[in-house]
Design brief:
The chain is mainly α and 227 residues long. Helices cover 82% and strands 0% of the residues. The protein is globular and about 70 Å long.
Length: 227
């Protein structure tokens, strides 16, 4: 490949790869900055200091793993579409051929670990929101949520095992390896979101019935705190 071809290819593919990866990384970093700032404000409270430090360390690990996988994906995409244009089958085939090498596997592993850690935060929120439920309801909700989480972890381990076994990307197992893990994680996310939304709605309805029309200003403040 001539130097002019490399420059031409890099001029079109590198900005696209940087743009997509930059949006993903920027969105994650913005969320991380906002959460860290809000948690840091709670460090003044001695009662919540240990929990706050734990949460800051947890989301910092999430951001680090997410940033690492994003950088690896961006690097290989830029390299493939800039320097491997003459690879037999094109850059897509090149990416498929190197997908189970150590560095790409590291990107998949960090991505899976990020998903596990993010889902673990959802589990913690469900445990918090289950306070006040009767024992049977609480056990049913927690059993379902923890079963889904264990399934996500198991499917992630299976997915990582497929990626490190040397199976080709375009094989049937290679193409379907990520489907169970992503589907179970999405199911867990949707269930937890629905559960928390219903719980907040019940809190709001209860507060409205309790206060009635008494002191509308204070009721608005209470509803804002709950939501």
């Amino acid at each position: 490949m001539s130097a002019s071809d490399v420059v031409s290819a890099a001029g079109t593919t590198i900005p696209a790869s940087i743009f997509v990866s930059g949006i993903s990384w920027g969105f994650t970093t913005s969320l991380y900055s906002v959460c860290t700032h809000n948690l840091a404000r709670n460090l003044r409270s001695t009662k919540a200091r240990k929990k706050t430090f734990l949460l800051i360390a947890w989301i910092s690990l999430l951001w680090t793993l997410s940033s690492l996988s994003t950088m690896i994906y961006a690097y290989y995409n830029i390299y493939a579409y800039s320097w491997e244009l003459e690879y037999p089958g094109g850059p897509v085939v090149y990416l498929a051929d190197i997908w189970n090498q150590p560095l790409p596997v590291l990107a998949y592993a960090t991505n899976i670990c990020t998903m596990w850690l993010a889902d673990a935060i959802l589990l913690w929120r469900v445990v918090v929101f289950c306070h006040g439920f009767d024992r049977l309801t609480r056990r049913l909700v927690l059993s379902l949520v923890f079963s889904l989480y264990i399934s996500v972890v198991g499917a992630g381990c299976m997915m990582l095992g497929v990626y490190t076994s040397g199976i080709g990307l375009f094989s049937t197992l290679g193409k379907q390896a990520a489907i169970p893990c992503l589907a179970l994680s999405m199911t867990l996310d949707l269930f937890v979101t629905l559960f928390i939304s219903i719980r907040l709605l019940l809190f709001r309805k209860l507060l409205e019935r309790t206060l009635g029309a008494y002191i509308q200003c204070k009721k608005a403040y209470y509803l804002l705190i709950i939501e």
